[in-house]
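re the bet — no i am not wrong, look at it urself. input seq straight from the record:
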Amino acid sequence: MSPSIRAGFATADDGVRLYWRAVGNGPVLMCNNGVGVSTYFWRYFVDFFAKEYTVVVWDYRAHGRSDRVKDWREADMSIARLADDLHAVIAAAAGDQSVVLVGHSMGCQVGFEYYRNHPERVLALVPMLGSAGRTLETFFDYAGSPKLFEFASRMVDSQGAAAHALIRPILRSPLAWFVTWRLDLVDPVYASREDMVKYLGHIARLDLRVFLHNVLEVQKHDAWDVLPKIVVPTLIVAAERDAFTPMWLSRKEVDTIPGAELLVLADASHAALIEQPENIHHRVARFLRERVFVTL
């Protein structure tokens, strides 16, 4: 029997409609995307867990099927705003149920910020390949990364349509795939080119000004103060070759969250969700069975 599927739009408190999709029945696993990513990055996760749980995926504002803005300057992509949006999505997709928050990359920050404001709605946390804040400072372990992204954002803002006309064809070309694996952003041995092409294609469809301002927001946000106060079961997922979230940062998160567990994925990159889904799935399933839904 196929899992049930529901989909719809939640309405944020400022009127923006947010697309969500729920697959399966049972306790709710709420998946939060990384920056610039749509829901397809979770497709292996959904296929595996929808047999036993309800897996909810959703698009951030200005992404995927959610509402976009005519003027990019009106798109509030702050982590606090996205955490408020998440609250609206949980209400629409899960009703009054508490949920397990699963996040990838920036989605970890959205989850930690949501826990700050609504700890009573969170059963457990599964942050994957992400930080608790000030993320650009650890990007490639290079302290100058924030300045580089600020410069790129100013350049794209100033060029407007010309920047889109230049960058979008590159993102859709074979060159983009070549660059991503040459920079160790993805492992071509484990990840399929098809999955990464979809990721790059989604970024190409975004307003690049919104994307870069979203990237700058992950640097402004800081939820490290929340971590020592977390009292729900937490499983941190890290990857040995993650250039975005270095291993030392994941270990710091584990040391800061009381009782947190750590899964280290050998020879995996920041794209481990599509590189090593089986390893992630089996460890997360055991975590849920042993620490969260013990009586089920």
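see?? The chain has a mean pLDDT of 88. told u. also The domain at 5-133+221-292 is CATH 3.40.50.1820 (Rossmann fold). so pay up
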